[in-house]
UniProtKB/TrEMBL annotation:
Mannosyltransferase that operates in the biosynthetic pathway of dolichol-linked oligosaccharides, the glycan precursors employed in protein asparagine (N)-glycosylation. The assembly of dolichol-linked oligosaccharides begins on the cytosolic side of the endoplasmic reticulum membrane and finishes in its lumen. The sequential addition of sugars to dolichol pyrophosphate produces dolichol-linked oligosaccharides containing fourteen sugars, including two GlcNAcs, nine mannoses and three glucoses. It comes from Daphnia longispina. GO terms for cellular component: endoplasmic reticulum membrane. Belongs to the glycosyltransferase 22 family. It comes from the Eukaryota. Residues 537-554 have a biased composition (Polar residues). It is found in: Endoplasmic reticulum membrane. This is Mannosyltransferase. The chain crosses the membrane at residues 164-181, 187-213, 225-248, 276-298, 305-323, 329-349, 361-382. It is a multi-pass membrane protein. Keywords: Endoplasmic reticulum, Glycosyltransferase, Membrane, Transferase, Transmembrane, Transmembrane helix. It catalyses: an alpha-D-Man-(1->2)-alpha-D-Man-(1->2)-alpha-D-Man-(1->3)-[alpha-D-Man-(1->2)-alpha-D-Man-(1->3)-alpha-D-Man-(1->6)]-beta-D-Man-(1->4)-beta-D-GlcNAc-(1->4)-alpha-D-GlcNAc-diphospho-di-trans,poly-cis-dolichol + a di-trans,poly-cis-dolichyl beta-D-mannosyl phosphate = an alpha-D-Man-(1->2)-alpha-D-Man-(1->2)-alpha-D-Man-(1->3)-[alpha-D-Man-(1->2)-alpha-D-Man-(1->3)-[alpha-D-Man-(1->6)]-alpha-D-Man-(1->6)]-beta-D-Man-(1->4)-beta-D-GlcNAc-(1->4)-alpha-D-GlcNAc-diphospho-di-trans,poly-cis-dolichol + a di-trans,poly-cis-dolichyl phosphate + H(+). The gene is EOG090X04MD. Residues 529-564 are annotated as: Disordered.
Length: 564
C-alpha cells in the first residue's frame, strides 16, 4: 500500500512539474509576441496616409473630446467615411496613460507610442487566446511553432499596431477564429457580425465561408444561425449608425458607404489596379516568407488543418476580383495559413530523431525561421526610411526653440508620410496643411517655415525661394535597393533627399496666425519681401515660372511602399 501511495505521489509530482513547465512555456510564447510587436512600434512609429483617419480620430477623442468642431475629419473627411468605434476603443485603453503623460509634461508625440501600443494590445489579446486554442486542439508543439512563425514574419506584426481599418477589424476576426475552433457558435456569429457591419464588409466572404462550412457539416443548424445572426446584426448596425452619425454630423452607416463605393461603383480601382492573381504570386509570398512552402506540407501531415486553410484561400480568390489590391486587405488570412505551416514544423521537429533525413528536415524548419528573420530585418529597415514626413517635423522641432511662436506649412508628401496631430507638439505653433498652394506664392511666404518636397536643393520648385528662404535641413527617404557582390551585406538600401525645411528670411513684422486672415492680407508682404523674380546672372533663368516647363524632368519623389 505504501509503495503504491509512494508511486502515486511521484506520478502526481511529475505531472505537476510538467504542468508548471507547460505554463511557463506558454507565458514565454506570449511575451515573445508582445516584445516583437513593441520592436515594430519603436522601429517605425510614424504612420502613412492610409492610417490617417483612425490616428487623427484617436487624437481628437483624447485631446478634443466633445469638441467635435475641432476634429480633423471635418476638415479632411477623406474619400469615404470610416467608423469612430475603433478609435473610441483604442482611446479608452490609452486615455489613462495619456493623462499620466500630460501630468508628467511628457511631449505629446510620446502619446503616439501609447496609442499604437494600445491598438497592438487589442490585437494581441485575441491572438494569444487563439494560440491557446491552437494548443488545445492541435497540441503545444503546433502552438509554439505558430508563435515562432508569426514573429519571424514581417507583415502581420508590422500591421498589428498600425491604425488601419483592417487592423481595427482584426481583434474581432481573431476572436471569431477563437470561438470557431472552440465550437462556440453564438459568440463566433456575434463577433463576425460586428467585424462585418462595423469595420470591413468584405469579411462577409471569409467569415461567411467558415459559417457555411459549419452549417454543411451539421455542427450548426440554419435556424440557430438565423436566431443569433439577425439580432446581432441589428445591434451592431444600430450601434455604428448611432455613434458615427454623431461624430460625422449626419445620418450614415460608414461601412455601407464604403461597400457602395468599392463594390457597386467599383471606384477602388482609381487608386491603382493589380493583376487577378497578384495576391497569390506577390502578396502572400511576401507576407509569409519561406513559411508558405510548409502550408501544403501541414495540410498533408495534419489533416485537421485542412478546414482552417480552405476558407482563407477561397476568400483571397474571391477578393481578387476587385481590381485594387493591397496586402493589408488579406491580413486576416495569415494566422490560419500559419497554423498549417506550424503543424508541419511541429511534426517534422518531433520526428527529428528517427533518421538522418528526418533530422535534416527538422533543420530545414529552423532554417526557414532564420530566412524569415533576415527578410523581416531587411523590410523593417526599408520601412523605417519610408516616413520622411514624420522625421522632417521632428527635425524642425529640434531646430527651433519651443518657446517661439512659429507657423509652418506642411506639403502633401510630408502629410502623407508620417505627420499627424500627435507630432504637433506645440499648441502655440501653427501647423498648416492647406493644399494646392503654388511654390513661391505670397500665401506660402506668410509662413516662418516650409516643409516641402524636392529632389535636391537645386530642384525647380525650390527656385522661387532662393532669395526669400534658407534651407535649414532636409530628410531622405527610401529610393531603391542596390545589390553588389563587393560589399557585405550584398544588398544595400539607398535613400535620397525628398523633403526640405525652408526658413523664411523675411517673416511678417506682425504675423497673423489665422490662415484665413493671411489669405486676405497677403499683399502686406509685397513691401517686406523681395519680388519672386531672381537674379538672372546667378541662375541663367530670365524669369521664374509657377510650374515647370513641359520638357522638365523634375518629378515628385515617389516613396515606394515596400511595407505594403
Amino acid at each position: 500500500m505504501s509503495i503504491r501511495r509512494s508511486g502515486d505521489l511521484h506520478e502526481y509530482t511529475d505531472l505537476k512539474r510538467r504542468s508548471m513547465g507547460s505554463r511557463k512555456t506558454q507565458s514565454e510564447m506570449d511575451w515573445l509576441l508582445i516584445l516583437c510587436s513593441i520592436v515594430h512600434v519603436f522601429m517605425c512609429p510614424f504612420t502613412k496616409v492610409e492610417e490617417s483617419f483612425n490616428l487623427q480620430a484617436t487624437h481628437d477623442i483624447l485631446y478634443h473630446q466633445t469638441g467635435i468642431q475641432e476634429y480633423d475629419h471635418l476638415e479632411f473627411p477623406g474619400v469615404v467615411p470610416r467608423t469612430f468605434l475603433g478609435p473610441l476603443a483604442v482611446s479608452a485603453l490609452a486615455a489613462p496613460f495619456v493623462s499620466l503623460f500630460h501630468v508628467l509634461e511628457i511631449p505629446k508625440n510620446a502619446s503616439l507610442y501609447l496609442v499604437r501600443s494600445a491598438l497592438g494590445a487589442l490585437v494581441l489579446w485575441p491572438l494569444i487566446k487563439l494560440r491557446k486554442r491552437i494548443q488545445e486542439t492541435l497540441g503545444q508543439g503546433t502552438s509554439n511553432w505558430f508563435v515562432f512563425i508569426t514573429v519571424s514574419q514581417f507583415h502581420f506584426l508590422f500591421y498589428l499596431s498600425r491604425p488601419l481599418p483592417n487592423t481595427m477589424a482584426l481583434p474581432l476576426v481573431l476572436l471569431a477564429y477563437y470561438y470557431w475552433l472552440g465550437q462556440q457558435h453564438g459568440k463566433f456569429i456575434a463577433c463576425s457580425a460586428a467585424a462585418i457591419l462595423i469595420f470591413r464588409g468584405e469579411l462577409a466572404i471569409l467569415l461567411g465561408l467558415i459559417l457555411l462550412g459549419e452549417i454543411l457539416t451539421r455542427r450548426l443548424s440554419l435556424l440557430k444561425t438565423v436566431i443569433i445572426a439577425v439580432p446581432s446584426g441589428l445591434i451592431w448596425l444600430s450601434l455604428t449608425v448611432l455613434v458615427d452619425s454623431f461624430f460625422w454630423q449626419r445620418l450614415l452607416w460608414p461601412e455601407g458607404e464604403v461597400l457602395w463605393f468599392n463594390v457597386v461603383l467599383n471606384k477602388s480601382g482609381d487608386w491603382g489596379t493589380s493583376p487577378f492573381l497578384w495576391y497569390f504570386y506577390s502578396a502572400i509570398p511576401r507576407a509569409m516568407g519561406t513559411s508558405l512552402a510548409l502550408v501544403p506540407v501541414g495540410m498533408f501531415l495534419e489533416r485537421r488543418t485542412l478546414p482552417l486553410v480552405l476558407p482563407p484561400l477561397f476568400f483571397v480568390l474571391a477578393y481578387s476580383f476587385l481590381p485594387h489590391k493591397e496586402l493589408r486587405f488579406i491580413i486576416y488570412a495569415l494566422p490560419l495559413l500559419n497554423v498549417s505551416a506550424a503543424a508541419a514544423c511541429s511534426r517534422l521537429w518531433e520526428n527529428r530523431t528517427k533518421g538522418k533525413w528526418r533530422t535534416l528536415l527538422a533543420l530545414v524548419t529552423i532554417g526557414h525561421l532564420v530566412a524569415n528573420l533576415v527578410l523581416t530585418g531587411f523590410l523593417l529597415m526599408v520601412s523605417r526610411a519610408n516616413y520622411p514626413g514624420g522625421e522632417a517635423l521632428s527635425l524642425l522641432h529640434k531646430l527651433e526653440s519651443p518657446d517661439s511662436k512659429i507657423s509652418v506649412h506642411i506639403d502633401v508628401l510630408a502629410a502623407q508620410t508620417g505627420i499627424s496631430r500627435f507630432g504637433q507638439i506645440h499648441n502655440h505653433w501653427i501647423y498648416d496643411k492647406t493644399e494646392n498652394l503654388k511654390a513661391g506664392s505670397l500665401e506660402l511666404r506668410m509662413f516662418d517655415y516650409l516643409i516641402t518636397e524636392a529632389k535636391s536643393k537645386h530642384a525647380y520648385n525650390l527656385r522661387p525661394y532662393l532669395e526669400t528662404h534658407d534651407i535649414v535641413g532636409h530628410v531622405e527617404g527610401f529610393s531603391h535597393i542596390r545589390s553588389s557582390y563587393h560589399h557585405f551585406p550584398p544588398i544595400r538600401i539607398k535613400t535620397k533627399p525628398c523633403l526640405f525645411i525652408l526658413k523664411n528670411k523675411y517673416p511678417p513684422e506682425e504675423p497673423d496666425f489665422s490662415f484665413t486672415l493671411r489669405k486676405h492680407s497677403a499683399e502686406i508682404l509685397k513691401d517686406q519681401v523681395p519680388q519672386t523674380e531672381v537674379d538672372v546672372e546667378s541662375t541663367n533663368y530670365s524669369e521664374i515660372q509657377e510650374s515647370p516647363p513641359e520638357n522638365s524632368t523634375e518629378i515628385p519623389i515617389l516613396i515606394q511602399k515596400l511595407d505594403d
